[in-house]
Design brief:
about 475 residues; mainly alpha; two-stranded antiparallel sheet; about 70% helix
């Protein structure tokens, strides 16, 4: 029985093995590795390796790690490189335009190598999730409330100012991001529940909160908060309206992917020139609406975004070309530094600046110049590679999936099931797991999010909202 289970899990690594076997032909190897991630998605969701949770309909459990986190994390990590690959072939979208820049002689071998590492990481991630996955879970607590939208609004309005205040206090600022994210998630779900419960006051309150979050996302200078805000609302409305809303939100997300690169580019340029955030945001929106050459500008900006920003394979190539050939593997150094970063600056006055600590390895690898003002923090899979190469990726991504799944299950046990446990608490406090980050940022965020989870459980128990069965 154990040998059969092992063989099932080894199925996940077939794309990497086959792609590696064709490594002499870079183009074939790349395509096998790239398509390999879709193979992993298919065998995972077709339950070839392990049965998926059956305690809820699929559309009511989408925020469990095997679904949402895997799709976002692995999709962003493994599938977006196709645009960079097409660009090196001389294509812009589906039109051949030729290469405008001189390419390194081994560029296709480098792309194929990184894609093989991506599909290896995807396999290890899913391996970790599936090994840890245990459903149904025995429930120890139950949520008592007259109105779920009231409870969610209460959590959102409680966490919003608290997140702001903790960000201003040196010894508590590690709680700020988590509380703000939880406020945002709870407020977005409150909007979906207010629609379901037909409560006019709650609908207006949650709609205003959602609009505030959207304006804050538009003023952040980043595309991800806007997309995540929209995507989450769609996920939470699925149980209310069913699959008929998928085409609508699909069209909205495609439009956002097409428009946001131009909006963010204009916004950042104006802010860099000294324009205040509100004015820059409004002018950027106006430029989108009243631009006579909008379509051409959107196409150019969007292709540049797809090639250089959505995909991070260009930076990964630089790391793999420098390590271990010019820079040795870091081994346990990065993990040790990450564990040290958990300590609050309040208790460690000489604590290094985390951003500068992370950027040291960026400079060492020659990814960006030291005089550059660009932040190019390595992705999680890059730090795994820099630590121990392929073995580091297997261990690091397996632990990533395993720990994420365990935290989700603990959240459900502590907070009365999937809805409050995973959809609210896990999605709100551990949002960093959707995209990942450098070791130092990620491990510290996970630790303090878990501490926040413990505190919130104690508060809900003290208020009589969370009652032990």
């Amino acid at each position: 029985m154990q040998s059969n289970k092992l063989l099932h899990y080894l199925t996940l690594y077939i794309p990497f093995i086959v792609a590696y076997a064709f490594s002499k032909n870079a183009h074939i190897s790349y395509l096998i590795a790239w398509l390999g991630s879709f193979f992993i998605f298919i065998i995972c969701y077709k339950e070839v390796i392990k049965k998926l949770p059956s305690d809820l309909p699929i559309i009511e459990q989408l925020l469990r790690p095997v679904f949402f986190m895997q799709i976002v994390f692995a999709g962003y990590m493994s599938c977006t490189s196709i645009f960079y690959y097409l660009n090196t072939l001389g294509y812009e979208y589906i039109t051949y335009v030729g290469n405008k820049n001189l390419l390194p002689f081994n560029i296709y071998e480098s792309i194929a190598n990184c894609q093989r590492l991506y599909v290896l990481g995807h396999a290890a991630l899913v391996n970790g999730i599936l090994v840890a996955m245990r459903y149904p879970l025995k429930q120890h607590y139950r949520i008592y409330t007259n109105s779920m939208s009231n409870l969610l609004l209460g959590i959102s309005f409680f966490c919003l100012p608290l997140g702001y205040l903790t960000g201003k206090v040196g010894g508590l600022n590690q709680f700020s991001v988590q509380l703000s994210s939880l406020s945002f998630v709870a407020g977005t779900i409150a909007l979906a529940f207010a629609i379901r419960e037909r409560k006019r006051v709650n609908l207006w309150a949650s709609a205003i909160l959602f609009a505030m979050n959207m304006f804050a996302a538009l003023s952040s200078g980043f595309k991800e908060p806007v997309i995540i805000t929209t995507l989450l609302l769609g996920v939470f409305l699925l149980p209310v309206y069913g699959r008929k809303i998928i085409p609508l939100f699909g069209a909205i997300l495609i439009a956002l992917f097409f428009v946001l690169p131009t909006f963010i580019g204009n916004f950042r340029q104006m802010v860099a020139e000294g324009t205040d955030v509100a004015t820059a945001r409004n002018k950027s929106i106006d430029n989108i609406i009243n631009n006579d050459n909008l379509i051409d500008e959107l196409q150019d900006d969007n292709w540049a975004f797809l090639v250089g920003r959505l995909s991070e394979i260009d930076m990964f190539i630089r790391y793999t070309n420098s390590t271990p050939y010019f820079m040795p593997y870091y081994k346990t150094e990065l993990a040790k530094n990450a564990l040290k970063m958990i300590i609050p600056r309040f208790f460690w006055l000489a604590k290094p600046d985390v951003e500068q600590l992370v950027m040291t390895r960026v400079y060492n690898a020659g990814v960006v110049d030291r005089i550059s003002l660009v932040s190019a923090k390595p992705a999680y899979i890059v730090d795994c590679y820099l630590s121990y190469g392929k073995i580091g990726i297997i261990i690091g991504l397996f632990l990533y999936g395993f720990i994420a799944q365990k935290i989700s299950q603990i959240s459900e046990i502590w907070f009365g099931g999937y809805f409050m446990g995973t959809a609210v608490m896990f999605a709100g406090l551990f949002q960093i797991l959707w995209r990942g980050n450098s070791f130092e940022f990620l491990i510290s965020a996970i630790f303090w999010s878990f501490i926040t989870l413990i505190i919130l459980q104690a508060i809900l128990k003290a208020r009589g909202i969370l009652v032990r069965i």
